[in-house]
Amino acid sequence: MKMKNIKFTFRKALFLLSALFTIMVGCERELSDEAVLATFPSTAEIFTDTPVGLGSNFYFPFVGSKPTAWSVDESEGYNSKASMRFDVPNVNDPEGSYAGAIFRVDGAGRDLTGYNALTFWAKGTRSGRINEIGFGQDFFENKYLVSTSLQLTTNWQKYVIPIPDASKLVEERGVFWYAEGPENGEGYSFWIDELKFENLGTMAQPQPAISNGEDRSETAFTGVDIALTGLTQTFNLGTGNNVTVNAAPSYFKFFSSNEDIATVNDNGVVSIIGEGTAKITATLGGVVAKGSLELTSRGAFNLAPTPTRDPSKVISIYSDSYTNVPVDFFNGYWEPFQTTQSSEFSIGGNSMINYTNFNFVGNQFANPTVDATQKSNLHINMYIPNSVPANIDFLITVVDFGADQADGGGDDTREQIFFNKALFVADSWITLEFPITMNNRNNIGLIIYENINGSSLSNFYLDNIYFYEN
Amino acid sequence: MKTKILKLNSIYTYLLFSLMLTLFTGCSTDEKQTVVTFTNLVMADEFDTDGAPDASIWGYNIGTGQDGWGNNELQYYTDRTENVTVQNGVLIITAKKEDFEGSSYTSARLLTKGKFEQTYGRFEARIRLPWGQGLWPAFWLLGDDSNGTEIWPQIGEIDIMEYVGDEPTRIFGTVHGPGYSGGESISKSYNLDNDRFDTGFHVFGIEWGPDYINYYVDDVLYNQITPEDVPGEWVFNNGPFYIILNLAVGGNLPGSPNNETVFPQTMLVDYVRVYKNNNN
After folding, report:
1. What is the pTM of this model?
2. Cα–Cα–Cα angle for A141, A143, A148, rounded to 5 degrees
3. Per the structure, how many domains does chain B have?
């Protein structure tokens, strides 16, 4: 009996194929010649003089961006009569404060394994720097996301965005994306033409990196999940210049030197599961990545005590036990003097904030401000790992933004709370509770934490930041 | 017409090459130019024996020379295994970033002076080049100095291949002689199309006879230099020349390495072959 010919088109080929194998092996027949692995179209072009092979519904603007930023301009082009124009709005454009979108193939993804770069020609009305531009963003998993930033010129110039490892891109729908805001508050336009994937023989010498190529070390605790950062791929172009892109974790293979202490998943998230030291390294496309992350786990981490106050008597800024009010930021990264870095992490569903390289930092919640007229006490849990510096001198400032409900404006008032050194102990959650006694406390919008008088407190955790009524 | 670029698409290059040369000469302005074919292999190092290079063929320049070999080069040349060795069928010249004898880099420079010298012939080597700002490999010939009685540039220099690591798609071939040396030398570059010199091996060669030097890369003849092209004495019909293979770091031509230059860098040589004209 002749085998029935089966043709796959742009379907979940692997899955079906393995099913097919099972069936075939089951009846001991040979695989039909035509039952080959389905492949996806390998169309290179995204835009020539018109969009190519994208289908009809392919442009998806980011939330908050100006949805009409993109158009096909039939009066400009690189050696042609048409190109894509992107109109970056002015800073207060009511339609959106920036331009940004993904171009996602409306239909089956593309097989990009035969290419090694996304290339295009571009120019701007000014030499703006496009904040983020790349491919691999599809608003689903964004699994193979790549981004870089690039400086435009006012003349047409060719740009190359390398594919970190094209063998991964067997079915990619996110063929292009960009995000760009105003330059110094001013909108402008830029054009992109001849947008396509290429296989450049002049691009070589991959230099992948994690932790931005540095050998970093961090302290951690059992149960903590830490996302690897600084994942990049660099290639040398035919011009002799290096081009670096941010590459999604899925391009990498990660390794832990001790799987009893830390494991890494495909998304580049390290899970601390034991006490001791483990070093995380990676490869990309078989090339060892520069940089590493050495984690020293101190074992179990004590969670902050669970608050027991009645939620009706609490206005919570940050706690897993209450509904929190909107917070503008937990770190304002105030330039130029602030050094404090921050990260948030979670153990067993309980989140906390970690401040490192601390000098001062603020939590702002001005939209809306907090009325602490009745709930006039502040509660904060704090954890200082390892040891408390002998010179610790810690100040908390609570700022009421006044009637304008905004920082500054001449109507702000503030209250400073100093703490007795003896309060602070290491490796244990302490509770800071104090009344707010200043007259104006119905528009509180900011809590500032700072080292004063040369205090060298550098690393601590905060949790359960809330106002309450006794 | 001084230089001609002829691209050969065929794979039997060398056969065609001879043919081509005939054609070449046929349309040359110099009707007296001798047609030669270089089919008699007189020296070959295939680098098939692991360890130090064959001492009957290769010697070394050691150190920093005068003013970094006249070019303010930064490396200290050694004959240590770290800088020069034969492994797996290739000669490996390695440029390292390390403090050594007052220099910040080490590398190697091999030469056949006093061991193999020849006038005229086909000289070719198959090489994979390094990459990065500040790397400057070369495969070149220098005229014998008659025990120091003649000095550069009178002795003549034929650079079969030079390359700077920040231009990975380009090599150049050059002659230096009296009145046309250093910045005034006679040179032409050759660019690969959609390829680069640090990702695979390429053949670099010359065919050198009386009053001409032809330059080729792989199957492409990209330049011919004759006495008409040089604004001084043609010193390439005299005295034997010897071969030099080296990997310089820094210096006037490439500039210094920068923080993106990756070390160590290697220049891999699959073979060096020299042919003579059967009639010689």
Report:
1. 0.77
2. 120
3. 1
